[in-house]
Amino acid sequence: MEFLLFLLRRILWSILVLVGLSIVIFAIARVVPGDPARMALGPTATAEQVADLQEKLGLNKPIVEQYGLFIVGLSRGDLGRSLLTERPVNDDIRETFAATFELVLMTITIAFVLGVPLGVAAARWKDRWPDTLVRILAIFAAVTPSFFAALLLQILAGYVLHILPTTGRLPHNLDFVAQVTGLLTVDSLLAGRLDVFGEALRHLLLPATALALATMGQIARITRSSMIDVASQDYIEASRAFGVPEPIRVFKYMLRPSFVPPLTILGLEFASLIGNAFVVELVFAWPGMAAYGIRTILQKDLNAVMGVVMVSGVFFVIVNLVIDVLVGFVDPRVRIRGSR
Amino acid sequence: MSTETVPAAPPRRLSNAYQNWYRFSRNPTAVIGATIVILAILAAVLAPWITPYPEHVGAVVNFRARHLPPSAEYWFGTDNVGRDIFSRVIFGLRISLLLALVVLGIAVPVGTTLGLLAGYFGGWVEIVIMRLTDIALAIPPLVMALAVAAVLTPDLINSMLAIAALWWTWHTRLIYSITRQLRTQEFVEAAETLGASKLHILFREILPNCVSALAVKTSLDAGFVILVGASLSFLGLGIQPPTPDLGTMVASGSAFLPDYWWESVLPGAAILVVALGFNLLGDGLRDLFDVQEVR
Amino acid sequence: MADALLSVRNLSVQFTTYGQTNQVLHGVSLDVPARSQIALVGESGSGKTVTMRAIMGLLRTPPAKITGGEILYDGRDLLTMPDRERLKLRGTAMSMVFQDPMSSLNPVFTIADQMGTILKYADRRLGRSRYGKERMARVYEVLGQVRMRDPERVARSYPIMLSGGMRQRVLIAMALLSEPKLLIADEPGTALDVTTQAQILKLLKDLVEERGLALLMITHNLGVVRETSNYVYVMNKGVVVEHRPTAELFEAPRDDYTKALIAAVPRLTGGTRFGAAA
Asked: C24, C238 in Cβ contact below 8 A?
């Protein structure tokens, strides 16, 4: 019961943040620069063309009204029309977002699946060589710029060792369209196409690893310090006094309380993760939102840019919501206090 | 369990300067970090005098010396128009460090002030500030910079402002947490009863207690700002060529991978090393001050 | 006493931290006969906690080192016993009631889970086997023994949902799970308010008497000693300075330190036990 209350509060919270976000984004796109229509059409456009576009996109209406339309559209999932192509931004983004989403999902998986055990190992053998090794690796992982890691991985695995593909989501000769979720891995499994599944995974591996490095480093470090903290707690000492065997103590009673800080870190890191995804997508020619975003920026297609920023923001808020829920699930103190 | 058998360590304050110095110097990674940072700063400041080919930062071409690998003559090799990469890397460091300085120079004071206000006054001040912070945190800095680049022009200053416009949030959060904890402490109450002005309490009582956490965070942040800045310039939003910028160098050099690897890898490694330095320094400071991560 | 359940003989322990070695216990001896209620009193730093941890086998032997003496349980020396044997005794022969109910319970697991796990592994060590339902039945039974009105609800709860007093009862219940013969209570109730503490102490006394357990209580609070024990050991700086039946100790303390301890207890009417208001 208190879990539901907790959930409700977090959701209301998120909605508030999203509203604020939409205001900020709208302000940037409309209020700040000169004339969006002129910017999109470029300096060679005639006054007529500009006026035309303005009319079409409702740029002549009062600002508040424009914002109102914007919000209404948003709630229906409509992100407006691209200033240039006049297609709904929605359509353009939807295709590319799935690719980005899949990449990010894989990234988080790698970061956690590798980061947490490394942190646990480092804590377990504190001050011995596994600990030192993990800490060094974690620091390097955390400070390597994503684009650098991406380039290095590309050279190493792609050109030098020739073991993994370096661009795109699928090899050219493979024909498959992700129908259901947009995620190649899931859809290929659903369709029974194991060959596509395999290729999709292979293509995911390098970019996801490059992207995951920084987060993985942070997660390993925080899991380590969290485990060390928990290990010195009275209740662990008590479980030792009561004769609970060590593996149970470590993997059950120490691990669960330690899980919250890494989760929280992931939530905070997620903003940089999205940002870095843009860079990694570029290096690996991954057909995600980044390519779209950068193109529209160069073309000064403001509606599209707004759409991309909005989607990124929403993505961030939702992920944090999920993480908050997970934290509440793991730690009863959070959800009980949070429901009051 | 009682800890009666373990001697308690003395509290760490900035005032115990000598003690801090001694303890800091015993920590190898911290010393490495500090060394890197100091060397980087020195190199950046003294760039025109210590680089072998300072003129290569300009529009110089030397087609006979294109794509040369690292050698005694050109320590980091040359790029596609024959410029010395080492010199350009050192000058590129200048830009990176300048970026960190500007961004943090804005973000830290703004963030700290907002955090103090929110933490101390509470009420709607707190609500407004913290909600703003939450919103700002929801926007990835890179994406924000991209958006600003779209709306204005893609250059270094706009990128810096865009990053700064979001970066203050981290410091606000940090200072807010600390202030909230300190607000209920006795020395604050004592100052209040004695009739100290709010300004005094904020800046002379609470703020000094935040300094150690601030130092740690700022040091770590410097590294991350440099990384974000490098990513931005990698995407083409940084300072325009021919002025050297580490991110841009990695980008332009990437076209020649893997054959002329030094053109991309070495500037990238420079970014890594500088970020590493700040990170190690920040960690070392954190160990020194026994600062707990406050979120 | 040769027939004591627990007998600590000449125990010496040293600690090495930051390169310095300190002798923390100098030849401490105490006996806990079956069914007795013994108190171990001293200030912080007196060594009472170290003694307790040595008995339970909870000393971390890098910093700590046992340099001499023996700890006999039922005639067998715990210090020379093979580890497996010693582990068998933990929680089953002697059990500890922890001091701080806030921090001694794992916050992210239910009481049922924590107690169930303890029981499960204690059973394994003893070679018994109980299945899930049986185990929970035992858990409820013990929770009832510590006077919980709704054992099943308590078991389903997380520590944060219980009051301080209830948590302390849970800690006592945990100690009783495998029917130990000796309970070692570490400053019971000091983390609670005075009224609750009194309830807990009464509960302990009742339980110990009902079940015929031996109780070794570690405390710095002379008032508690007076109420709950029939024999007292006073420690100061790693040495037992005096040990006598409780009543005698308070009537006519022999050692100076003991006198000072007793004198330091303020009385409601002002002044201390041995004189008018200072």
From this structure: yes
> Between these two residues, C239 and B182, which has the higher pLDDT value?
C239
Query: How does pLDDT run across A275-293, given as a tens digit for each residue?
Result: 888 889 888 888 888 878 7
Distance CA A302, CA A30 (A): 9
- The C-alpha atoms of residue C165 and residue C194 are separated, in whole angstroms, by 11
pLDDT one-digit tens code per residue, C150-191? 999 999 999 988 988 899 999 999 998 888 889 999 888 787
Q: B4 vs C18: CB contact, 8 Å cut-off?
A: no
**A227, A233, A242, best to mutate vs chain C, most C CBs in 10 Å:** A242
Say if residues B31 and B58 touch (Cβ distance below 8 Å): no
Distances (CA, A) of B133 to B57, B103, B107, C91: 40, 17, 12, 51
Q: Is C183 helix (H, G, I), strand (E, B) or coil?
A: strand
Residue of A nearest to C123 (CA): A243
Phi first, then psi, for residue C216 (nearest 5°) are -115, 115
Q: Residue C95 carries which DSSP code?
A: E
Which of C106, C108, C121 lies at the smallest CB-CB distance from A243? C121
pTM of the model as a whole: 0.81
* Confidence band for C137, pLDDT divided at 50, 70 and 90: very high
Query: Mean of the per-residue pLDDT values for chain B?
Result: 80
Residue A193 φ then ψ, to 5°:
-95, 90
CA angle C87, C92, C97 (to 5 degrees): 100
Q: What is the ipTM of this complex?
A: 0.81
Distance CA A273, CA C42 (A): 56
Minimal Cβ distance to B235: which of A17, A294, A302? A294
Contact call for A241 and C56, based on CB within 8 A: yes
DSSP B158-170: HHHHHHHHHHHHH
Strands C6-17 and C64-73: antiparallel
Q: In sequence order, which residues have a C-beta less than 8 Å from that of residue A195 and are 6 or more positions away?
A: A174
CA distance B237 to B203: 38
